[in-house]
Amino acid sequence: MSKNTTFSRRSVVKLGIQVPFTVAAVSVLAACDGGEEIALCADPNSLSFGENSIRQANKYTESSPEPENDCLNCAFFTPEPAGPDGEVPNCGHCSIFEGYASKNGYCDSWSTKDTGQG
Ligand code: SF4
Question: pTM to 2 decimals?
């Protein structure tokens, strides 16, 4: 049985938006003050100390400050297969965190997929 959890924008920001994911990767919606919602890939409260630490050390955020340098374009990101509508799900796998990350996310370990070869 899946369970959605809501977080206020303040609580997400308070956590630095640097503590998103868990191996279980439950999709979570965060309700914001203005009614806008932020989709999180996991309940930050279910992360282990180690999982939180690596995300904080890498300054992980659910929303990249540089849209062209988001997780979807990172060499360490593996997206979930696109759905019937062709849309790539928000949550994919980050090999640095060994867990889920948002396709729109970013951290200090971002690396281009472009090898410059070819
Ligand atoms: S290493 Fe890449 S995929 Fe993983 S969180 Fe950082 S930017 Fe996203």
Answer: 0.68
